[in-house]
Design a protein that fits this description.
The complex is a heterodimer of chains A (about 120) and B (about 110). Chain A is mostly beta strands. In chain A, about 0% of the residues lie in helices and about 50% in strands. In chain A, a hairpin with a 4-residue loop joins strand 8 and strand 9. Classes of the chains: A mainly beta (about 120), B mainly beta (about 110).
């Protein structure tokens, strides 16, 4: 069955430090890949997505992610974290050719930023 | 152009009551998705609707839950005879027709069953 794993439940980084959030998926073909951010009490905002092409994807707010087929991974990175980046981050996959366009989400990584 | 509007933002129901959650999609969007987020979990797909049609309800619990998206008006997620385990955040997303995962999420309805 298709699944998404975010192995880090909680991460704390210092402001200005670099960030990498891990995401691994299980699927027989190349899926569509997404990263969303959720601030407390809010809905989900799309940070970036990968459908095909260049495996390094640029998103909003200075985030980027790299698709590595050999590792079934789509890790999210940011070179310098700001206090406003504190939020919960969700990786999600969708499937080419599906009739539904439904997403499968990971369980999320809660990011805390220390001053 | 308003985003996806969900109401109410917070809903408290006693066990056994009915909960009705509303979702008004973005203008021009005719596809609606409902997801549920249980505490400390990711979002789980529930149902996908187009106007007057349920396309995929594979994530809906078999009993007590129903969804509709009428020709006019918002999409409704209805939970009958709520139980404590229904307490969760329910998110709606909409997309235009023939969109490839072009979702916009609403801010959610937080249901608390007491």
């Amino acid at each position: 069955a298709q699944s998404v794993t975010q192995p880090d439940i909680h991460i704390t980084v210092s402001e200005g430090a670099s960030l990498e959030l891990r995401c691994n998926y299980s699927y027989g073909a190349t899926p569509y890949l997404f990263w969303y951010v959720q601030s407390p009490g809010q809905g989900l905002q799309l940070l970036l997505k990968y459908f095909s092409g260049d495996t390094l994807v640029q998103g909003i707010k200075g985030f980027e992610a790299e698709f590595k087929r050999s590792q079934s991974s789509f890790n999210l990175r940011k070179p310098s974290v700001h206090w406003s980046d504190a939020a919960e981050y969700f990786c999600a996959v969708g499937f080419y050719g599906g009739a539904t366009n439904k997403l499968i989400f990971g369980t999320g990584t809660l990011l805390a930023v220390q001053p | 152009n308003a985003g996806v509007m969900q109401n109410p933002r917070h809903l408290v129901r006693r066990r056994g009551q009915e909960a009705r959650l509303r979702c008004s999609p973005m203008k021009g969007h005719s596809h609606v998705y409902w997801y549920r987020q249980l505490p400390e979990e990711g979002l789980k797909f529930m149902v996908y609707l187009q106007k007057e049609n349920i396309i995929d309800e594979s994530g809906m619990p078999k009993e007590r839950f129903s969804a509709e998206f009428p020709k006019e008006g918002p999409s409704i997620l209805r939970i009958q005879q709520v139980v404590r385990g229904d307490s969760a955040a329910y998110f709606c997303a909409s997309s235009p027709p023939e969109s490839n995962y072009g979702y916009t999420f609403g801010s959610g309805t937080r249901l608390t069953v007491v």
